[in-house]
Amino acid sequence: MQTPILAQIRELICRKNYEEALRLARELPDDEKEGGEAIALTARLQGQLGNFRAAVQMFDDLETAWPERMMIFKLHAVFLQESGKTEDALEKARQMVEAFPDASDGYLLSSECLELLGKPAAAMEIIDTALHKWPDNSELLACRRRLEPLCRQRENTDARLADAREELELSHCQIGRGDEFLSRYLDLFNGREGVHAEQCRYKGNKFGYRPIYEGLDKELIRRHLAGDQTLGIYIVRRDNTARTMVIDLDVNKGFLQAFLSHSDDRRRITALLLETAENICSIAQNVGMELLVESSGYKGLHLWAFSDFPVPARHWRLLGRWLIDELRGMPAEIHAEVFPKQEVVAKDGLGNLVKLPLGIHLASGRRSLFLERGSCKPWPVQDDAVAAVQTITRSEFEEILGRMTVAGVRLKNAAESAERDAAEADEPAAKPQDSLPDTGRAMGLQVKMRLPERFTVEIEQVLAGCRPLCAIVSRAVQEHSLTPECRHVLVYIFSTMGEEGKVFVHQVLNQLTDYDPDRVNAEIKAVPPTTMSCGKVRKYLGELAAQSGCNCQFRLPQGCYASPVAHAGIFPGSGRTLYQPVPVPAALSGRELIAGSSAGLDKLMREYETTGAELARLTERYRLLRRQINRLFDEAGRDEIETRLGTYRRLPGDEADSPLATS
Description:
This protein has 4 domains: 4-162, Serine Threonine Protein Phosphatase 5, Tetratricopeptide repeat, CATH 1.25.40; 179-388, DNA primase, PRIM domain, CATH 3.90.920; 457-597, no CATH class; 606-662, no CATH class. Helix content is 51%, strand content 11%. The protein has 26 helices and 16 strands. The strands form 5 sheets. Strands 7-4-6-5-11 form a 5-stranded antiparallel β-sheet. The chain has a 4-stranded antiparallel β-sheet with strand order 2-1-3-8, covered by helices on one side.
């Protein structure tokens, strides 16, 4: 309990009458002089009189002797604060919060120290945490009322400083006005023919765009770059193609107020935007595509891609959505959209627009600029960003789609595209693509996925052991079609083999002319956890199973049933879908197999048979070529013929092993 003399000493300390306070402390009765509070007051006085080290040592000794007395910690923190050691005082206050969680003193002292350090927002956070525990604490409520205007003032100051830094940074950016730059700009950022958009201010300080029915030219772009007007383009052209795609990363509406009002939230969400943009750019780079990053001038980022030929809008949308989906999760604060937003726009329509880069956003008064990847800083010379753009060619676009995972590929007119490309290849003098008239026919791209050379061990073992499944895969690759029964068996067998099996289903069905990834995903989702038995395979495939010699017999663990996946050591059974392989030697007589054990030999024998058949075909082709070549020598009436590439002699008869040619 605090005695009157201790209260008097405290009052003298507050009045900074340290000499008199020290005199009274020395006159304390011995029993009070040995008390923790008296020693703490003495230590505080020693520090105020210049004996800082001695005071600190006294406080440390007191805390060691009486660790349960919060007052000693509090006096220590106040002493450090009065001595100008605010960081040390903050650390001591935090120790109080940990050591005495049921008292608000540590929170109040921490908040006070943070306020002295010029961090009102952090101080407010401490107080808010304490108010969750003590919502009616008058000291905490008074502290919060004192901090509120300081936080608002600090946020306004931080926002002005950020604007000043950004303005200074942007003032160094150079933007070209020359004819060469303007020509390149118009070539890249071109949209719907005969129309563009202009940003304008409406009543109520709202902003929007209105269509201007005339094409863009260099003079309009000059005015846009000068800030005299802000222009946009409608992405989808009249033939439902586009030469550019934009991924628009914006702040989600639920977080917009915090982004605009609080500097900490703005910095945090801006960092998320830049991180997300960098991740999307990396994904695009991995499939062979470079994206141009642009700060929109307001609250988001634009990621641009360009082609040197008109790409169907639906293909751009497919590619853009795939890039976003590959993130495996978008931060809640960010919303992403792909432009073009429509696959088809009516002849008398316009579709959605995108603001042209390097102009002034009327809502913010800021200019949009291209950003360097990595540093996320504006290009010092914005012309360099435009000059560095690499447009995607038709063949590159097909390769990009070919590198994409099968889950993102959508191609509904692959057969028509292949036939059209073949017909165009046979024409003696095909017109350039850009000069083709608009016939209303959608352009197709050859984006069919090639099957990889090797699959996982388990899938290869199933294919090597199960002849009907091998025949189904061969039909898909060679004939590009499957009966519903074959499709059903393929999906039901391999979908139960984990993620690799599901990817394999997509890879095989992608060879079909009617491949639709959404449909395949729905089929996979409908597959039960237990795989199909050999009996059901024979029931569904019927004639194909009989022709393929589907009569495998397995010795399986008790409770399991025969299934093609047993070739890979996967033993389906009652209540379980996977058993470990049984280490029993294979019995290869007849068609009796220990599941999984003989799959290696089965695979080698199947490959041997296939190779032998291929060798016989090549041998026959070799003999046919030899007869055709010798027929040319017979028609010429000579045994040696000279061409621009070399001199050739008649080939030996069928008994020879190889042709003879000299050049």
